[in-house]
Amino acid sequence: MTMAPYVDDPEEVRHLFAGLRNLLAEANREFSLNMKELSMGMSSDFECAIEEGATMVRIGTAIFGERS
Predict the structure, then answer these.
(1) b or e along 18-41 (b: 16 or more beta carbons within 10 Å of the residue's beta carbon)?
(2) What band does 51 get if pLDDT is binned at 50, 70 and 90?
(3) Which among 47, 42, 48, 38 has a CA at the least distance from the CA of 64?
């Protein structure tokens, strides 16, 4: 699971999502695992996270709005 820092442009954190995807692949290879879940991305960057392989995203703000 990863939560990228908040930025105005999600492309600025794409490399973090790609890095976690690569880390998952490396762990699967090295330890003969078959893990598939990648929890990454929030309301402000979930589209980018999905493009990089996210299987779970946290989109509470998109559903419930900003916290008061």
Answers:
(1) eebbeebeeeeeeeeeeeeebebb
(2) very high
(3) 42
Q: What is the pTM of this model?
A: 0.91
- Tens of pLDDT, residue by residue over 12-47, are 999 999 999 999 999 999 999 999 999 999 999 999
**Whole-angstrom Cα distance, residue 24 to residue 29?**
9
Cα–Cα dist 56/39, whole Å: 5
Which residues have C-beta within 8 Å of that of residue 37, sequence separation ≥ 6?
Answer: 55, 56
Query: One-letter amino acid identity for 63?
Result: I
Residue 38 · residue 20 · CB < 8 Å: yes
